[in-house]
Amino acid sequence: MSFARLRRLRRTPALRALVRETQLSVDDLIYPLFVVEGENIKEEVPSMPGVYHFSLDRLDEEVGEAVHLGLKAVILFGVPRHKDEVGSEAYAEDGIVQRATRRIKEQYPDLVVIADTCLCQYTSHGHCGVVENGEVLNDPSLELLVKTAVSQAAAGADVIAPSNMMDGFVHAIRKGLDEAGYTHVPILSYAVKYASAFYGPFRDAAHSAPQFGDRKTYQMDPANAREALREARADVEQGADLLMVKPALAYLDIIRLLKEHFDLPVAAYNVSGEYSMVKAAAANGWIDERAVVMELLTGIKRAGADLILTYFAKDVARWLKGGE
């Protein structure tokens, strides 16, 4: 009896490696960092074991380790000391992200610094824009987001990553960057950002939980897929250079949709809730953390992601080098 013997190519580790279809590389990874005001601060986020708040003077050691491990890019999230109704610290020349960007670029000029461009962690109400009578206003919010993006580019950010999900944000930011002379700075658009339950630990880390209501009027309904194509297409037409899907694990089909429909690089955000679930299960001895993380990130890559934002970036870089 003749039949296909697919096990022939699985017989040894060398054979399996030879025919492996999806390769996860350190070059695929972007490492998120939380920067806070103050001095000598390295404080673990309670809901995200192994993830820390860093003051500027302690940021150097973390970035240095990331560079040593071969990571090529970080994305910065700032946690300001003062908040107000319009998130003015987001676009201040001496804002926490602006200062962190300058510091990193001075010491590691070849490291790609991506600036998250949003207002939620800077506003007293915790929403991603200007609020009036309980409503998040779209167009007035765009004006502040443009100011934020330009200030981040002026500080030396290599990439602007707007995560606010206001309509027209890519067009507004592209126009603002170009007019300010930053035509060379690309936009990594959070093109498809769902109103997800997986963001809880991040909101703990960034102190960005909304103080009233939720973000469902501007972030996407998790039930929708065709809408993701409309969102991404709008951003492509407005000048986005890269597209992001957030979160990753519950939206692998969306990553694949974007990969098939657009010719821009696709990024996926392996978000805080995804990270913390793995950490909790590993801490209880229920899973092999290394094996699970590598399987999950390989799955994200296989779905079509060219880039993966993940809090596991340093661990994965170490594992890929053969370390523990």
Fold blueprint:
Elements: H1 13-18, E1 29-36, E2 42-44, E3 52-55, H2 56-68, E4 73-79, H3 96-107, E5 112-117, E6 130-132, E7 135-137, H4 138-154, E8 159-162, H5 169-179, E9 188-193, H6 200-206, H7 226-238, E10 242-246, H8 252-261, E11 266-270, H9 272-283, H10 289-303, E12 307-310, H11 313-320
Parallel strand pairs: 1-3, 1-4, 1-12, 4-5, 5-8, 9-10, 10-11, 11-12
Antiparallel strand pairs: 2-3, 6-7
Helix pairs in contact: 2-3, 4-5
Subunit structure: Homooctamer.
GO molecular function: porphobilinogen synthase activity; zinc ion binding
Binding site for 5-aminolevulinate 1: 203, 215
Give a structural overview:
The protein has 324 residues and is of the alpha/beta class. It has one domain (23-320): Aldolase class I (TIM Barrel). The chain has eleven helices and twelve strands. The chain has helices spanning 13-18, 56-68, 96-107, 138-154, 169-179, 200-206, 226-238, 252-261, 272-283, 289-303, 313-320; strands at 29-36, 42-44, 52-55, 73-79, 112-117, 130-132, 135-137, 159-162, 188-193, 242-246, 266-270, 307-310. The strands form two sheets. Strands 1, 2, 3, 4, 5, 8, 9, 10, 11 and 12 form a ten-stranded mixed β-sheet that branches. The protein has a two-stranded antiparallel sheet with strand order 6-7. Helix 3 links the parallel strand 4 and strand 5. Helix 4 (138-154) crosses helix 5 (169-179). The model has no long low-confidence stretch (mean pLDDT 93).
